[in-house]
Amino acid sequence: MNPLGELGELAAALPSGPGALLTDPDVVEGYRVDRSGGAEAGRPLAVVRAAGTADVQATLRWAGARRVPVVPRGAGTGLSGGACAVDGCIVLSTERMRHLEIDPPAQVAVVGPGLLNGELKQAAAAHGLWYPPDPSSFEICSIGGNVATNAGGLCCLKYWVTTDYVLGLEVVLADGRALRLGGRTVKDVAGYDLKRLFTGSEGTLGVITEVTLRLVPPAGPKTTLVAAFADVTAAGRAVTSVRSRARPAVLEFMDAAALAAVEAQLHMGLDPSWRALVLAASDLAGPAAAEEVAAMVGACEAEGAVEVAFTDDPVEGEQLLAARRMAIPAVERLGTVLIEDVGVPLDRIAELVGGIAGIAEARATTIAVIGHAGDGNFHPLVVFDAADAEAGARARQAFAEVMDLGLALGGTITGEHGIGTLKRPWLRAQVGDDVLDLTRRIKEALDPLGILNPGKAF
Asked: What pLDDT shows up at residue 64?
């Protein structure tokens, strides 16, 4: 069989019409990589822009009959290579699947995978409700991608991650069957909780075509705190101390390299002598908020913060958090970036950030460290000049050493971005042979031909 010569059959099989199939090389190129950069991305045969579940089913049935790989793709904002194409694949984009239904009395939203996180937040707010999962890229990332990677974000310390809001899924299997898992009820223990199996599976087990999500009443206004440190490990100890005293709505971290990159772009007047910044927020009300903020201030001061300030002005608070959200785009302006996603136990945070600083120095490589410090999830951003082979080699070695450090501290190689291709070499070291064998057996049961997102996750 010649899959390239049979694309006409795929176009004819798509219920939404031939316009759903893209074959122009210049257009297809735009779907080849995700935000990770995709150094190893392959060349797809074509792109299917599915308009509904039937398009997804038709694509998978066509691909299964020809053993053509299929790479599901949302908004392409992933940072681990999970949506990068492989040679000869069909990229199956869900960007057109954007339906939205909100049921205010039930506090439920039913959405297409292509709907953006920020759009759902805005729609929920119009009904006096809130969708808490809050990736830094919430304005441009899709719900389908959030579910596929079990995304977290700035609010997940207190309000948990995507899987905690997924009540139901519609998923299309590799053979084209559409399954409905879960539903609209808050509690449901009928059978295995298969929706959690697909949440975080990175498109390797099925293609998500609809998501039913729990909404909650909105949190209260925030009091935002910022604490500056002259020593990065002191800032790490402060985070651990804050967590021992409080569970703030936000607890974020930025090191000197991240602060310098943000200052160069936003000109906020950040002091260049600061080696780290801890950002925290309380959304409690009245005296409880004052008590929580006082506890956080005390924890930071006890660890030697050189400056501590807080505000209950919502505009000022959002400006501070915007600086954290802008960190990755700001660092990306410095060169090519390998983005880490390690997580460690709360009592090992200082060792992690101090160890990363040591790796950066030893490898003569810039590593800007940001993170959701309150849950131990950090994003070291390894920066290098792609035109400099030696610098690239040092950066890749630094990336590997940060991964090894996270595991040595009892942590994980990914807290929210997924394995994709960037983290795959370290998965065995974290989970072990038996877990990896079970993972493969589950994959083989659901995708016996191995056509769904091959080469990703494991």
From this structure: 98
